[in-house]
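Lab notebook, design round three. We kept the backbone fixed and only want residue identities now. Task for the bench partner: fill in a sequence for the structure below.
Input structure tokens:
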């Protein structure tokens, strides 16, 4: 991918996030409302509509799910090793090292870089990471709610979307259009919420956030390289996995840390630092690393 294509791919993501940043600076913006609309309406509809109309085969979907599991486990190991080498423990930084931004950055990048085929694969990653975040992520954050995964809508939207896609069931056109329109809300609202959240974060000591960022993005890239080499994955799926590997830490990490743990400021700082680093890392991977 040449530099012009990289710019065209990345620019809309950061421009929309910048609009969210500016809006939050200029006006009193309810990020909680944006997040609730995305979490419970827009994102589940996007998951359903993408998977129900997509063409990813079951075996390829299994590869994507397996890759997510390997990335989460691999970056957790890298984080523990890096923090141990620095003479500290990861503590609250383990959560943002493990879980990447598979929603408000990955999905538009997959769409802009690889078209509808990329978006479908990105949605499978997003649905998988949503299930992992609402189960394993809650536990790592300090929560003791193994049933949280069943309180969030992603697993139901993913199962329903895959069932409709694989069985060829035709939903009534008004239902299809309504779900598609609601799904179309998800990506722009995610980016606005991302920018608004970053505008409100303070930046503490850099050591922990930098180590977590190196674990998340550098470690993730190495783990993904090993995975695609071992499995022989190629084509759009390989490209999406390599892009996934360098995504910054997910915003939802901050929400979970705030709700279930006591390291919200450290997690927010990691989200901020890793997002800044992604301004350089993502264009480099799109240009040279796929």
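Proposed sequence:
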């Amino acid at each position: 991918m040449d530099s012009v294509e990289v710019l065209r791919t990345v620019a809309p993501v950061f421009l929309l996030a910048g609009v969210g940043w500016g809006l939050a600076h200029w006006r009193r913006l309810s990020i909680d409302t944006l997040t609730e609309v995305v979490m419970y309406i827009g994102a589940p509809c996007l998951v359903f509509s993408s998977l129900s109309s997509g063409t990813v085969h079951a075996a390829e979907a299994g590869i994507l799910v397996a890759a997510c599991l390997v990335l989460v486990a691999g970056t957790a190991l890298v984080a523990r090793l890096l923090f141990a080498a620095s003479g500290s423990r990861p503590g609250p930084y383990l959560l943002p090292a493990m879980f990447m931004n598979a929603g408000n950055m990955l999905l538009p990048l997959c769409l802009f870089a690889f078209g509808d085929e990329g978006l479908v694969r990105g949605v499978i990653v997003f649905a998988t990471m949503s299930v992992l975040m609402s189960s394993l992520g809650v536990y790592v954050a300090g929560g003791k709610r193994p049933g949280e995964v069943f309180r969030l809508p992603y697993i139901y939207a993913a199962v329903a979307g895959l069932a409709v896609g694989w069985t060829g069931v035709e939903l009534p056109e008004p239902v299809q259009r309504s779900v598609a329109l609601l799904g179309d809300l998800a990506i722009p609202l995610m980016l606005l919420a991302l920018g608004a959240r970053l505008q409100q974060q303070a930046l503490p000591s850099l050591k922990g956030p930098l180590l977590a960022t190196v674990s998340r993005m550098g470690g993730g890239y190495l783990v993904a390289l090993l995975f695609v080499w071992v499995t022989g994955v190629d084509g759009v799926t390989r490209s999406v996995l390599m892009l996934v590997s360098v995504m910054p830490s997910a915003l939802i990490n901050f929400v979970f840390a705030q709700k279930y743990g006591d390291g919200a400021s450290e997690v927010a700082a990691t989200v901020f630092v890793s997002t800044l680093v992604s301004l350089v890392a993502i264009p480099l991977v799109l240009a040279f690393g796929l």
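Keep this in mind before ordering anything: The domain at 3-288 is CATH 1.20.1530.20 (Na+/H+ antiporter like fold).
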